[in-house]
Amino acid sequence: xxxxxxxxxxxxxxxxxxxxxxxxxxxxxxxxxxxxxxxxxxxxxxxxxxxxxxxxxxxxxxxxxxxxxxxxxxxxxxxxxxxxxxxxxxxxxxxxxxxxxxxxxxxxxxxxxxxxxxxxxxxxxxxxxxxxxxxxxxxxxxxxxxxxx
Length: 149
Prior knowledge:
The protein is mainly alpha-helical. The chain has eight helices and no strands. The longest helix is centred in the N-terminal third of the chain and has 26 residues, at about 10-35. The radius of gyration is 16 Å and the shape is globular. It starts with a helix and ends with a helix. The model has no long low-confidence stretch (mean pLDDT about 90).
């Protein structure tokens, strides 16, 4: 066993640690994007700007490592599933806070809609869709906000 893997208690520990590192970076970058936006309506689509920033700073991957790991490690007993759950909680909690700040007739439904657009943009990156799925996702999110969902 290599020293790097042994340090983490095996391959599962290494996978979990790598995902946690990615999640910590992602959380910081997304919060930076939210903080940089001037209005509540601008903070919500900053999610898509954050993905672009993350890809530029760290890994220009085609999709989401967390989603990919979830499909490759379906057993909920795998230690990485705690990180997968934490990423889902981060998305849900932050989107709910941001949509509450935007207001409108149904902020909870807006959060679900933006999450669906985000997941679609991430799939678009994986598929290599053109034009840029992140710019398209940002535009769709902005339209959802402008239309009151």
